[in-house]
Amino acid sequence: MSGGFSLGFLTRVYQPAFNRKVYHETLELFKAAEALEFDCGWVAQHHFASEQGRLPSPLVLLAAIAQATRRIRLGSGVIVLPQEPPLRLAEDASVLDLLSGGRLELGLGAGFDPATFSAFGGEHARRHQDYDDHLQRLYSALSDRPLNAAGARLQPRTAGLGQRLWEATSRVEAVAARGNGLIMAPNPQLPSEAAGPWLQRYRQAWPAQQPTRPRAAWVQAVFPEQYPDREDSTLRRDILAYAQLQRHIGVYQGPLDDDISVLLKRLGVLHGSSQAIIDVLGEGPRLGVGDHWVVQVQTASTSLRDAIRALETFRERIAPVLGWRPRGAQGSPLATEH
């Protein structure tokens, strides 16, 4: 992993049973991350508490976060685009971008949970086709193109949001052709070394005439100083429950009766000492200027205090060794003792 990348975090707004404090705690997590000089925070969308995620409306929560923060960039990771009216999404995103001073990073995906598609009256089998259709409509709105025969255009307008779109998909050449950022994460169906070639394909497909440069966001679950081989480990319990849910909806197809360390490796979940995590990340995708390293430090049972502590550990002991520097820092990466 090379230097110069931005440092971010992702929260899936997990909670075993719904309590409205999860939204207030997510806001506090963003404030803490900003104080720690993280560059970006991302929230995931889940409908009907899929995977125990409690946030169906990412832009609403990000609007509240925008008013409680000043610098940290605000990402959706991701909004399920086939289930969204694209023009309404463009309007909401534009208002949020204006409220936040141009800090929105709009991440999009096709979705995977069949139950949510049926609830929205859509077809799971058509999700990629619907995604492409909705993306084109969204991009037309954000690009100030006429949206009907009368020449209606998006209001309000916000400068540059159309150049801050991100896509989570394996169709990396299409993402590059559109000039959008690529969101990547470990895929349990593929070997860990597959990420590098995917990223290389994306960069090689980037059009020479694009005024911006290719940008990738690598998302990975990292739990420093946690040891799930212990029987009383909440990480162990939560990961097993997560894998069972993923298997139920067909996303995860591996066995569940392996040693927990095998399952964690298959899912790309890093844990243990800071040095052990650094050793693995050093062999991961090569990230540079314009790219984002995005750490997920929460499972369904993680408290706000423990999540903040994990962000602190990553920021102080791991990210500087990998080449990250706080915005505005000069010279070599921060010196950190281990």
TrEMBL record:
It holds the Pfam family Bac_luciferase. Transmembrane segments: none annotated. Residues 21-224 form the Luciferase-like domain. PANTHER family: BLL6902 PROTEIN, LUCIFERASE-LIKE MONOOXYGENASE. This is LLM class flavin-dependent oxidoreductase.
